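If you are new to this repository, start here. Below is one unmodified record pulled from the training split, so you can see the exact layout before writing a loader.
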Amino acid sequence: MAGTDRRRAKLSGGPAIILVEPQLGENIGTAARAMFNCGLTDLRLVKPRDGWPNKKAIAAASGADAVLEKARLYDSVEEAISALRRVYATTARDRYMVKRILTPRFAVGEIKTYLAAGESSGVLFGPERTGLLNEHIALSEAVISVPMNPAFSSLNLAQSVLILGYEWFNAGNEAAGELTATGHSKPATKQQLIRFFEHLEEELDNSGFMRNAEKRPSMVRNLRNLFQRAQCTEQELRTLHGVVTSFAGPRKRKKKAEDS
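And here is the target side for that same chain:
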């Protein structure tokens, strides 16, 4: 349906739309078009298979240049979400994790509440063929899943982005209206949370707790999901860093004494 009127004001803003390892330039372009249809303009690309910039993406975007020109390129999911405080992951499959599963409409209301409070947010979309890795979903607050025909619930990338964008556009200024009180400390960014994860996992490796290589990935995901659900503040993470360092201290002092 034709409906472009460049004389009218352009809507912009909203959560970051993060495409993880998208395969075809055309898919990036049609996703960007879906975003701009709904007033979303923050596009982030993680390792697009066919490189960036991409001529096929520009052609498929059909004029959504405002989105493509501002698109940012990243080498990893962790880098793309590092400055965000809230991240949601999209998937149609059961990942056997303890995660809240939200419809796009409910998720959008929640995201609007967070953005209104100054808490930057983003939504992860996985590769067209495989979807997101469990490791990426473990970095999210919740999963967004679109209720569809159980026998055929697969959506292409642009469709998924459009459904979320449509809910965003139609929600107007409505928000979920609930926030967790955080005192005088801000909610932790994903970069701060990932830094804590790495600190904790390093010490668990050093202590031998992670010695079973086969079970290690699932143990890491379980721990990360646990702390995601806690919605830690920056101050709480500093305290947790101190706790981990305190527990590791006696072991390190003992090892130093043994080596001397």
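Two things worth knowing about this chain: The two ends are 77 Å apart (CA to CA). The domain at 190-259 is CATH 1.10.8 (Helicase, Ruva Protein; domain 3).
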